[in-house]
Every structure is written in structure tokens, then in C-alpha cells.
Amino acid sequence: MYELITANRNYSSWSLRPWVLMRALGIAFEDRIEPFAAPVNYDAFRGFSPTGQVPALLHQGRTIYDSLGITLYLADRHEGIWPADPDARAWAQCAAAEMHSGFSALRGDCTMNVGVRVTPKPMSDALTANVARVRELFEQGLATFGGPWLAGADFSAVDAFFAPVAFRIRTYGLNVGGGQAWVDHMLAHPAMLEWERQALLEAWREESHEAELAAAGIVTADYRTA
User: Fold this and answer.
1) 167 near 14, Cβ under 8 Å?
2) Contact 213, 219 (CB under 8 A)
3) How far apart, in Å, do the first and last CA atoms of the chain sit?
4) How does pLDDT run across 49-59, given as a tens digit for each residue?
5) What is the rounded distance in angstroms from the CA atom of residue 222 to the CA atom of residue 226?
6) CB contact at 8 A, 99 and 205
């Protein structure tokens, strides 16, 4: 049995990737949450992850860390992580890698918080470029491979890698044009609905994450119930 260690549902975008991937593909795992208890959790998280970060996957005495590392590990053991079609597979791997290494303005200016809605501050040039590139990727994937998922008819790792972006798009009302069809489809997936349900019930509030949210814009709605 896999054990997947993740953090707060409201905040942890990196945790969401392997969690939703494994849920969507029916890969069973023990679900362990280690919440962000402070602005810096490195020392506490070093107890289970060499990077002091989440997510981490424990399996057969191994610690597999980083969302991309986990995805590659799972792809060696399970069908469906990447599309079967060679063209879709190549595109999906490139898009997932681009998400993994890029979009720093989107990450920084639109911090993930599942349970709120925000009128964002005026977008920087860097954020504008990031959102335009997200739109381009979404529209390209849907047009090329026919949807409803980014690389075709079946959910795959590229959808999981952009899952946190779907929440960000909704939270901040970002315009991704024709890519909104994928956003709506993604947010309606049972695994995403379950992650959101847990986020809204979460009692944790971490000061630095809430400060990042306040700096991102004006909170117009907060659906967190705890």
C-alpha cells in the first residue's frame, strides 16, 4: 500500500497533484495529512521527506518526493498516468514539465486558497503572460486531442499537474478563454470535489498563507466553514 503525505487542502497546490492523480486513476493509498503549522515547516517535514517539503510518497521502504518524482514513479507501475497515444503523451509530458518548472508569477501572485474568492490586484506583466500561456496550453490541448481532458478522452497526469491552476482560475476569476471548458470539467471531477469538501471543513489557518492571500487582492467570499 502506498502512503501519500500531503498538507493543508486549502493551501497545498503541490500536494494536490499526486493526490488527485491517484484518486482519479483509482490507485489506492493511505492518506496522511501533515499541515503547515508555521511559516517554515522544514524541520518538521524533514522527518518524512529529505527536502522538508510535501508531497512525499512512502512505498516499500522508499521515500519518493516531489510531485514530478512521484508521478514518474507511479508511471513505472500503473497504466494511464500518461496518454497512450504518442502525440498526446509527448504533449502532456511537455506541458506537465512546463507547469512544474514555470509560471512563477501565477504561483506567487495568485496563491492557492480553495475556499475563497478574490478580486485580484492589477495583474503584473509577468502574471498576464503566465495566464495567456495557460490559456494557450488549455486551448491547444483541447483542440488538438478533442477533450474533455487536456490530452484527450482520458484523465492523465497533465490534468493533475494543472489541477491547482483550476482552483486558482476560479478563486481569482482569471480569463482562460476556451480553456474554461477544461476548468469546469476539472472542478466537477469527484476527486476535486472531495478535495474541495475537505478544504472547506479545514480548521487550520496559517498566518503567512493568509497574509499572501490578503496581498493578492480583496477577498469577496470565504466559504470555509471551520
Assistant:
1) no
2) yes
3) 31
4) 999 999 999 99
5) 11
6) no
